[in-house]
């Protein structure tokens, strides 16, 4: 094999190696296992706001002060004061160590109401407080500059894990248990009610 042929073979091998590296999106851990980050979009929060009807555009209306366009389902007139339901979702990325990265969307308007009571009724069905038992992954202590802090890691019914600071008394209560009673807020998706995301809101036994 002459020098020109050898150079061609080396270049081909390098191209194959580089193309193989570029095609892989798998994260490698030191233990030799392969893990990938998982991403999902979940319902995050709702709120109700007061708004004023602006211009009417066909079957739609603008909402002041932001001139957001919304269907005029209530047959409102310009200048009417109404209530609106707004929604925020989140892109939740969980890495191989179960750490969560959350990216929140902007608020978007879903629905209008003629009065506050009607809006609050829907809001109460979309954000529901429940008391239940969840899995306790474990508790641990950290120390920094002579200060000690305690944490508990909980696994919520929707599969996400949360870390909560705890005092010394609760640390002692939790260090030998596998389940703990908590208060959760279940946020339901407006379009698919069975799709929920759970948020920790406190301990059931203060």
Automatic annotation (TrEMBL):
It comes from the Bacteria. The keyword Signal applies. Residues 1-23 form the signal peptide. Keywords: Signal. This is Uncharacterized protein. It comes from Paenibacillus apis.
């Amino acid at each position: 094999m002459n020098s020109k042929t050898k150079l061609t073979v080396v270049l081909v091998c390098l191209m194959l190696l580089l193309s193989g590296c570029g095609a892989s999106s798998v994260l490698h851990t030191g233990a030799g296992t392969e893990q990938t980050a998982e991403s999902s979009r979940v319902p995050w929060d709702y709120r109700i706001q007061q708004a004023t009807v602006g211009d009417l555009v066909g079957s739609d209306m603008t909402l002041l002060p932001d001139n957001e366009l919304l269907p005029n389902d209530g047959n409102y007139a310009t200048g009417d004061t109404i209530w609106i339901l707004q929604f925020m979702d989140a892109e939740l990325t969980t890495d191989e160590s179960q750490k969560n990265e959350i990216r929140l969307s902007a608020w978007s308007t879903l629905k209008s109401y003629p009065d506050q009571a009607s809006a609050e009724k829907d809001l109460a069905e979309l954000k529901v407080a429940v008391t239940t038992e969840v899995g306790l992954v474990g508790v641990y202590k950290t120390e920094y500059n002579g200060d000690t802090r305690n944490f508990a890691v909980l696994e919520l019914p929707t599969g996400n894990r949360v870390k909560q600071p705890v005092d010394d008394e609760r640390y002692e209560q939790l260090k030998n248990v596998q389940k703990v009673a908590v208060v959760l807020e279940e946020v339901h998706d407006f379009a698919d009610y069975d799709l929920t995301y759970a948020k920790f809101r406190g301990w059931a036994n203060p």
